[in-house]
Amino acid sequence: MKTYFNLKNVLSVVIAFIFIQSMFFKFAGAPETVYIFTTLGNWVGLPWFGQYGGYMVGCAELIASILLFTRWHGFGALMSLGIISGAIVFHLFTPLGIPMPTYGESLLVGSDAAIQALAASASDLKYNIIIGDQLYIPIEFDSGTLFIMACVVWLSAFVLTVRQLKDPQSTLRKVLNR
Question: Which residues cross the membrane (predicted)?
Fold first, then answer.
């Protein structure tokens, strides 16, 4: 009888779980996602990246998550390692930073409530996000939770990739040795 509770499967589930749960934020255009990709897009000089970057990264994460459970597992692990390495680098070496803002309810731009909230806001204005006619003001910061999850994915993907590269029967090693 084949056992499904092994290191490869556990690490694959960890990666896929974290990637897939984050896709809901990316594909729904959550203010947290808009903040992250707008900050990065402005930093690299590609303002369109703020609008489309979440979808692009989310699609790549979905493909990697699917590949982790196929015979192309090694490519899913390598792809996960590349995606999450980029995320970690951007958190560490750009204006993005490690703690991420979390947003509460939105306010109508220009309304009295929005003006009062902006006046009373203790946060830096760079964290405020406008999506359509809605203003989002951060209510707190995540203390690095998103970054910690990225590190867990990186470590899991690294272990899976190294294991695949050491296995002479793995598809990844066979393709890369050609």
Answer: 52-70, 77-98, 146-165
